[in-house]
Amino acid sequence: MALVNEYFLNLSDNYLFADIAKKVSAFKRTHPRIEVISLGIGDVTQPLCPAVTDALHRAVSEMETVSGFHGYGPEQGYAFLREAILKNDFATRGIHLDIKEIFINDGAKSDTGNIQELIRWDNSVGVTDPVYPVYLDSNAMIGRTGPKDDDGRWTNVAYLPCTAENNFVPQLPDRRVDVIYLCYPNNPTGTVLTRTELRKWVNYALENDALIFFDAAYEAYIQDPEIPHSIYEIRGARKCAIEFRSFSKTAGFTGLRCGYTVVPDEVTASTLAGRRVALNPLWNRRQCTKFNGASYLSQRAAEAVYTPAGREQVRRTVSYYMQNAQLLRTTLSRLGFKVYGGENAPYVWMRTPGGRSSWKFFEEMLYGAHVVCTPGVGFGPSGEGYVRFTAFGNREKTEEALARIEKWSQ
Ligand SMILES: *Cc1c(COP(=O)(O)O)cnc(C)c1O
């Protein structure tokens, strides 16, 4: 008899965005003539930049020829891309990594979900709350989070609330955690950590022999020069942190797929008997067994992001989205809403007025203004009473949505 992995049964049935889609389509059935504007899902809308599509066309032409054809590539990624990453994302910030420490992937979601395979099932996990759902669900699938309690919280997880009350700065956990997931700039709150705040976490990890899984998918949106882009800007982080990056939000690769993971040589974890084991060779071993490399095409496309033209074009798109964020912030504040984030991230996090629940406000705005946001509670219990607006829309739609919200809220 094949026995199912029952830990899957602990996961909630419905994925947040499926719930939203269901409510939106219910609205559309009863209001077929109204066009709904979505500032909900976190996908980008602007096309790939010319430097990237030129590189893609060139790579396709190569693949048509016998001499330029590429079959299986290295599981860790091509050296041309890993070297461009070392030079442009790290050396320019005084971080000197080795090529062996960079692993190219098909996007950060896979590796942020897979990385937990490197640690035993009985480690304890800490996450900021609200949070990108992948971290907890991937741990839940192997039973590390324990079952859910009556409030829908995983029993074996240390939730670190990030709310307006603590200015979205998570406090160090009051119980032992072996692994901490941090995502900065943050999805969903759009907030960031200063160097001092991030240093506190690195020191905590070093003192408590914990690991930090640091998701920097939104690094390209940081505007303030004082905010760290990489956790390796903090001394000691190479001993305790694994970092995830992605071209998805940086350069519009959500449909093309490419990202990378940094596993420094010095990151170790302990065996039960107390022997230190380096995680880099383990991750390499894992990737060589379960992953056959990102496509040659997407790696050539990612390489083009680092050319002078690519950098300039990507910078322009980022700034386009950040102007949307600015528009969302200023308009919503002017209308009397309390907004957070959106200054170094493409998300604006808003408190629902009058203590409404996230879903109640979502429905009211859908029916009243025909605009979709994302209910904050979908990202965790501390997201209750907030909603998320994305700055990834196009300008005209964002402006139109804000005009509708203005009219509706008066
Ligand atoms: C979008 C996003 C990613 C990137 O996902 P990809 O798989 O690279 O497209 C990673 N982490 C967070 C928090 C995200 O919001």
Walk me through this protein's architecture.
The structure is a single chain. The strands form four sheets. The protein has a seven-stranded mixed beta sheet, sandwiched between helices. The N and C termini lie far apart (62 Å). The relative contact order is 0.17. It has twelve helices and 15 strands. It is an alpha/beta fold. The chain is globular and about 60 Å long. The structure holds pyridoxal-5'-phosphate. Pyridoxal-5'-phosphate is lined by residues 42, 107-109, 112, 132, 183, 187, 215, 217, 246, 248-249, 254, 259.
**What is the multimeric organization of the chains shown?**
single chain
Q: State the share of residues found in helices, binned by percent.
A: 25-40%
Shape: globular
Give the radius of gyration: 22 Å
Order of helices and strands: HEHHEHEHEEHEEHEEEHHHEEHEEEH
The proportion of strand residues reads 5-15%
Name the bound molecules: pyridoxal-5'-phosphate
Strand arrangement, major sheet: 2-8-7-6-5-3-4
CATH topology of the largest domain: Aspartate Aminotransferase, domain 2
- Quickly give the CATH architecture of the largest domain: 3-Layer(aba) Sandwich
Number of domains: 2
